Amino acid sequence: MTTTDLGTTQAAEASVAVSTRGRRARQPRPTAAKHLRATGTAYLMIAPMAVLLGIFVIWPLIYSFYLSTFEISFYQGSKFVGLKFYRFVLTDPDFWHSLRVGLGYSAMVVPSILVLSLLLASFIKTLSRKAGALLKTGVYVPAVVSSVVASVIFLFIYQDEGLANWLVGLLGAGPIAWLNTAGSALPAVAVPGVWMGFGISTLIMLAGMLDIPESYYESAMLDGANWIQRTWYITIPSLKNVLLYLLVTSFVLTLQELQLPLIMTGGGPVEATNLPNLFIFNQFRDNTPFATSYSLTAALLLFFVLGAISLLMFKLISSQKSQDS
Q1: Is 82 within a domain?
Q2: Contact at 8 Å (CB) between 30 and 36?
Q3: 266 and 160 in a common domain
Q4: CB under 8 Å, gap of 24 or more: what pairs does 145-148 form?
Q5: 178 lies in some domain
């Protein structure tokens, strides 16, 4: 090899090395640019929802808190009073009583909905396609029934000569004043709440069950596991995120129930069914000069109570690793 050829070879190798280093140096740039484009696209997609959330949720919440610091009256000008109404609401035993009634109502309705939905969804899963479709349609019907219509229906059921007392009569017991007795009024109002709520919960739980691989159940059956064991060790852990969603949403909805107690009992007897929203509604209709400020403050405090309990539920269940496996 001549000196000229050797120089040419070395120059080519140097050129290739420089080109390779250049490509390696320029390689992260497209990746970084792609990442920035993906991030920008994500922000662009959530921007409309963020704007709507700010307009219809965050700003009304801030403005409501601002209004709650004033004495608002239809008969005279507003007057700034700071946190005066928060002290009034927090020291009002009727407000705390309504919260206790609301929590008791939720404690009756929410577990009943979850248990019935789990059982019914498990049954529907075992049916054929046609039978399952028919039953799913029937289960969903109560979800589209108005609370007003449901209240009227159950008012007839709870009458002295209604269906409930007819069933009690078959057991040899006398008629019961379901809606006029403090001990039975709240459970009687809870029944239509369960009836209207378990349909949609059943469909959501069924959708979650259909995502569980059948191989899990087949392996458990080969090991001799019965239905209860398969449900406890496979279905419920696999549905943990679905159960969390249903638990939080059902709790929030039931604690804010208004129409059922308003129509069926009006909050009675002796305030036994005076749920928080019904209490706030009655305070707003009160003839006192500052009923608006009081009811607004009570509504904000109820909002914070709902938020705190929901966060507590998320914290407790997420600590048990509720993420999908």
Answers
A1: no
A2: no
A3: yes
A4: 145/196, 147/196, 147/259, 147/260, 147/263, 148/259, 148/263
A5: yes
* CB 272, CB 180: distance < 8 Å: no
Concatenating the DSSP letter of every residue in 98-138 gives HHHHHHHHHHHHHHHHHHHHHHHHHHHHTS-HHHHHHHHHH
Domain that holds residue 49: 3-67
Q: What is the token pair recorded at 306?
A: 């709902």
Q: How would DSSP label each residue in 46-115?
A: HHHHHHHHIIIIIHHHHHHHHHTTEE--SSS--EE-TTHHHHHHHT-HHHHHHHHHHHHHHHHHHHHHHH
- Contacts from 39-47 at CB under 8 Å and sequence distance 24+? none
User: What predicted TM-score, i.e. pTM, was given to this entire model?
Assistant: 0.82
Same domain, 98 and 236: yes
Cα separation of 270 and 252, whole Å? 25
CA distances from 206 to 14, 40, 118, 126, 209 (A): 66, 36, 8, 11, 5
Element (H, E) at 168: helix 163-170
- Rounded distance between C-alpha atoms, residue 244 and residue 227, angstroms: 22
**Tens-of-pLDDT digits for all 325 residues of the chain?**
554 454 455 544 555 454 555 555 455 555 556 666 778 788 888 889 999 999 998 999 899 899 889 888 777 778 888 899 999 999 999 999 999 999 999 999 999 999 999 999 999 998 888 888 899 888 998 888 889 999 999 999 999 888 999 998 888 887 889 999 989 999 999 999 999 999 999 999 999 999 899 899 989 999 888 988 999 999 998 898 899 999 999 999 999 999 999 999 999 899 999 999 999 999 988 877 788 889 999 999 999 999 898 888 888 876 444 444 4
Indicate whether 45 and 148 sit together in one domain: no
**Domain co-membership, 188 together with 306:** yes
Closest CA to 112 of 123, 101, 120: 120
What CATH number does residue 257 fall under? 1.10.3720.10
